[in-house]
Design a protein that fits this description.
By secondary structure, this protein is α+β, with helices and mostly antiparallel strands. The chain has one domain: Trna Endonuclease, Chain: A, domain 1. The strands form 3 sheets. A 6-stranded mixed β-sheet has the order 1-2-3-5-6-8, with helices on both faces. Strands 4-7 form a two-stranded antiparallel ribbon. It is globular and about 40 Å long. The protein starts with a helix and ends in a 7-residue tail after the last helix.
Length: about 180
């Protein structure tokens, strides 16, 4: 279902006249054993003519998404890729999380906000959140608190996301922020 979400997000971006580049994952079955499989720093790049967005897209059926543990959904190399990209002017980086079972709620979390949550969940910072945080996952209630909701509608089978509205709000909220090291 994650690939369906990525495809719907890509189609919505193109329909909104936003340049979209979806970084394709390499199928490990297509490679011989002697080859290394590259780890993509993020899934999608959007460009609206002024701002570049580097985004990691995640979809889940649960009410939280794992970011630590033996098999986290948000991987360390993805966080590092988003942090690195966000250091440039006019680049906004973050994670887009789609909660399928929660009325297809979808949110953008800026990489800075993710890093703050990560530090809080490790006990390195005091919690500024109204809702309870978890050590190994990010609950929907926290995502609602720190993220920008990306509204969408269901058209017959697939979802259409309001990408221009999301971009406008993200530019307004994050235009001048720089990621901490």
């Amino acid at each position: 279902m994650g690939k369906v979400f990525e495809s719907n997000f890509e189609s919505s971006s193109k329909d909104s006249n936003i340049f979209t580049f979806r970084v394709r994952d390499v199928n490990p079955m297509a490679l011989k054993k002697a080859f290394m499989i590259p780890k993509n720093p993020y899934d999608t790049v959007l460009f609206n003519g002024s701002y570049l967005f580097t985004l990691e897209l995640k979809s889940t059926q649960s009410k939280s998404i794992s970011h630590r543990g033996s098999n986290p959904q948000i991987k360390e190399h993805q966080i590092e890729g988003l942090k690195k990209a966000s250091k440039f002017d006019n680049v906004i980086s973050g994670i887009v999380i789609n909660f399928r079972e929660e009325e297809n709620k979808t949110f953008f979390i800026h990489i800075d906000d993710y890093l703050t949550y990560d530090a809080v969940s490790k006990g390195e910072l005091a919690s500024p959140y109204e809702n309870k945080h978890n050590e190994k996952s990010i609950p929907l209630k926290i995502v609602e608190e720190i993220g920008i909701e990306i509204l969408n509608i269901k058209k017959r089978v697939h979802h259409q996301y309001f990408i221009n509205d999301f971009i406008s709000q993200a530019v307004s909220d994050y235009n001048r922020r720089k990621t901490f090291d």
